[in-house]
Fold ABC transporter permease.
Amino acid sequence: MVTSYARIETPVAPTTAAHVAPPETSRVPPSRWRRHRWTVIRVLSPIALLVLWQIGSALRIIPERILPAPSLIADAGAELVRNGELADALVVSGTRVVEGLVLGGLIGVALGALVGLSRVAEATVDPPLQMLRALPHLGLIPLFIIWFGIGETPKILLVALGVAFPLYLNTSSAIRQIDRRHLETATVLGFSWRQRFSRVILPSIAPQLLVGFRQSLAIAWLTLIVAEQVNSDAGLGFIINQARDFLRIDTIIFGLVVYALLGIITDGIVRILEARALRYQGDR
């Protein structure tokens, strides 16, 4: 007797991409540490450097006559704050920077606009300005003293000279890079010169102009550090000169730290203004 087994096949529905469910993947949100780790490291790195500096000074690895401990520098700064010398110096130095920025800024932007808008000015004004720009403006201190004396004038003019060239270069370059089609469209629409300047030229040059302003701020504080060393009777430079005469290295370093902080703070203010002024460009 032969037994036969029939093979029964169950029909299988065709498999398509629509019937295949994608594998479920659980997305784990990044931890707070992973999101902010670089910010934390940027904050902790200078703190770690100060701690190592303090430890090195306590162990006398770093001689006090060369580099005092951070605690001694902080004490020197606290002394200047208590007796009011720092506040008075900040007012004097800040006034010099503001006056130099205004004077140099007006000159630099005006010359940059003139050269950027006029072929004749580009051919006649730009060459001597480029020659003057090649000169180290801090090397002109002896001439400025002879010409203008040792009062406030040479200090303000030195700051103005250092400020003018970054704004001049950025303004003239930005104007040359304006899309000519925008200007032609404004002319066809019957815009007046004032309307063309406010609605076409100024928005187009604003990003590069603000970059030049940030560069000018850094140069302004750098110039002031040197200018205030020349027979100053007030300001941060005067405090540093007095500390040099009395061999107060802690006060000298504190004064330099204040200069650096002023530069960082003013640059941050310009960055905030830049972000607000250029919101129309979207996220960069």
Observations:
- The domain at 84-281 is CATH 1.10.3720.10 (MetI-like fold).
- The two ends are 87 Å apart (CA to CA).
